[in-house]
Amino acid sequence: MKLLLLILLTSLLAAAQPAATTYRIDPAASRLTWTGHAEAGDWAPTGAVQLRQGRFDYAGTRLQNGRFEFDMATISHSDTQLQEHLRGTDFFDVARFPTAVFTLRALAAGQVVGELTLKGISRPVRFPATFSRQPDGSLRVRGTASIDRTEFGVNYNSTSFFQNLGSYAIRNDFQLAFELVARPVR
């Protein structure tokens, strides 16, 4: 009798969970902005990178099971020389690694948990984000991730690897601010 009651209770709880809906990112409506920082002074170049595609599952109050692809060839900055340098071997080596991937495990209680693959190296990441349901049924996801570039082999002008860089030293961390728009897959 207890076993039957336990099975019934488990079935009821499973039925009460909302079914997950798959959402696809609208790259044209989404925005990704990066900001780097000099070690000394207030120089903080900012640019953008385009999302190639992305999707995730939405189940009531959670985002989960997502995959997002970044087109690293689109990394941009208003200074074309810096832009090309970022695309080169000193930084993101776009010719060899044209895509970066973020795998979302879950976004719950305001924290994103997942894994970032950049330059063929995968590392776990965690950062704050929010999402909101829009009147048209889309979801808007916003947040800022702080990424340590040296964990992905981007060591150019890092004081962790090079000495006496003076004003050429670049902080290891950069920020990736995002505002994503996702629509349900029909």
TrEMBL record:
SUPFAM superfamilies: YceI-like. It holds the Pfam family YceI. Keywords: Signal. It comes from the Bacteria. The keyword Transmembrane helix does not apply. Residues 22-183 form the Lipid/polyisoprenoid-binding YceI-like domain. Residues 1-16 form the signal peptide. This is Polyisoprenoid-binding protein YceI. It comes from Hymenobacter daecheongensis DSM 21074.
